[in-house]
Amino acid sequence: MTEIEPDNTVDARGAACPGPLMDLIGAIRGAESGDVVRLLSDSEGSLTDVPEWAEEAGNELLAVEELDDHNAFYVEKA
Amino acid sequence: MTERIVIVGGGTGGSVLANDLADRLEPELDAGDVEVTLINDGPDHVYKPVWLYVPFGQREPADGRRALDELVDDAVDLRIDRVSEIDTDSRRLRFDGGGAPMEYDHLVLATGSTLEPEQIPGLVEGGHDYYSESGATALREELLEFTEGEIVLSVIGTPHMCPAAPLEFVFMVDDWFRERGLREDVEVTYTYPIQRVHGNPHIAEWARPIMEERNINVETFFNAESVDPDAETITSMEGTELDYDLLVSIPPHGGVDLIEEAGLGDGGWVDVDKHTLEAEAEAAENVYALGDTADTGVPNAGSVAHYQAGVVGQRLASEIRGRPATATYDGKTLCFIETGMDSASFVEFDYENPPSPAPPSEKLHWSKLAYNESYWLTARGLL
């Protein structure tokens, strides 16, 4: 378990690609600089498109936590 | 005891369902055992795909409008009113105008999408769209006079209505200026929020080479953050700034507030079982959602609402007759995609089978136009 405390959690489990990434982008859009958003996704595509987008947008992917049936992505808004 | 079915929303999903039920439950309606009410906040049914052609001067907004009372079977009670509250505990709807509340035994929510351009600073002032009647007619004024400069088509909100329409617009713009000998003086740029040009990877893979061939510039990972109408620039969250002379956007979309207020789902979309289309909120019994309103993950498209209406119609009829409801929605989606002013592709897919776009042809273009004309048979529940 990571010890990062998110400011907001987006539960996109069950959503097909690109739903989880769009939910994350929506949450980051409404966040303040320095806020950490946790995205829960069970879509395989998130493992590639979330890191790609975070890098492109200059936000930091702090951690990816592998859980039983989904992954948790911690993204800090730049 | 009369069973009351109430449908909220007179778009494609709500109208097709109302007419489906009028046919399917004819004996029960005649006997007074069932009542079907369709509620809409205006007197007209609007067929939105017509708007794609308005900016090119090919159709009029009126071509996509018909009075609901002409489309919907007389066995259906039509109420023109705006629902202000859904109370799933007491199974009751309240109305904006203060009219008498309405009780239901079975509720179907088909309230659709609304545009929220105000979410992006400067977009209302600086952008145009073809996702509304007023937007399409205002864009027509600009596009018909446009002879040189930069056109930017920016997909801002997803999910949005008709996911193929942004691709169709840039393909049509490219061809339209080319046919008129003006293409060399017009730059066309398409922006999309994720790393490819369409949400569906199969459609994205098909479209990207066509865009390259046609000199349509592409900016991916572009999530509009603000528009500066004076400087005529649009800036993304990713830090890219684009100049434009004409900005056409797919604005952010939202559902209606009363769905979230009723605890049925976030953002105005109802959390549903994607096969039965029943609302998942525990407190909400006998509530279905369909079309854009149902959060199934499939495109927000008329064909989806049409097919889902058939499923909900069958399920409701089974429930009314005390039989197990077995009809389910398999994700079926069907879409013509214009690839120019006189060619189109076609896709058909479902939850299990991905789309494989057909080679563009003039025949498919005419099929799309022919369907747009025969849509009124669909709305009547006949096709």
TrEMBL record, chain A:
UniProt GO molecular function: transferase activity
Keywords in alphabetical order: Transferase
Gene3D superfamilies linked to this entry: TusA-like domain
Species whose genome carries this gene: Halorubrum distributum
Chain ranges of the UPF0033 domain: 10-34
Transmembrane annotation, as ranges: none
Superkingdom of the source species: Archaea
Name recorded for this polypeptide: Sulfurtransferase TusA family protein
Pfam entry (one): TusA
TrEMBL record, chain B:
Entry's transmembrane regions: none
UniProt cross-references to InterPro entries, sorted A to Z: FAD/NAD-bd_sf, FAD/NAD-binding_dom, SQRD
Coiled coil: none
FAD/NAD(P)-binding domain location: 4-309
Source domain of life: Archaea
SUPFAM superfamilies: FAD/NAD(P)-binding domain (SSF51905)
GO molecular function ontology, one term from the record: oxidoreductase activity
Protein name, UniProt field: FAD-dependent pyridine nucleotide-disulfide oxidoreductase
